[in-house]
């Protein structure tokens, strides 16, 4: 019996994401989600790390590009989650997303990906229910059990 060669497990791709939130008049919080371009599922603004930028800076840049958000980004991640990123050629790659809190101060009228995505503000509980990645749902739920700090 011949042994099949073992494929080396690949390191997950490193991404960064922003968990955008704002405080409402009653002192609660709302979470902003965006749709992904390909599958149109609800996600947080995220992308690949950027050379010359700290991870939290890259996360803030993604929030601007994908949702027109400006605010106070936290320097310490809330956690990370794994997901399968679907590529244009129909392959997928495992990605690890480090998530940083972003307290939204302003939402711009124009931003780079405005025509490519939908945006919606959710309660934290509804946001956790709307995302398909269990790890991201867990981060959202735990972030709003305590006060998120930017």
Automatic annotation (TrEMBL):
It holds the Pfam family NUDIX. This is Nudix hydrolase domain-containing protein. It comes from Methylobacterium jeotgali. Its cofactor is Mg(2+). Keywords: Hydrolase, Magnesium, Metal-binding. Residues 11-144 form the Nudix hydrolase domain. InterPro entries: DDP-like_NUDIX, NUDIX_hydrolase-like_dom_sf, NUDIX_hydrolase_dom. The lineage of its organism: Bacteria, Pseudomonadati, Pseudomonadota, Alphaproteobacteria, Hyphomicrobiales. Gene3D superfamilies: Nucleoside Triphosphate Pyrophosphohydrolase.
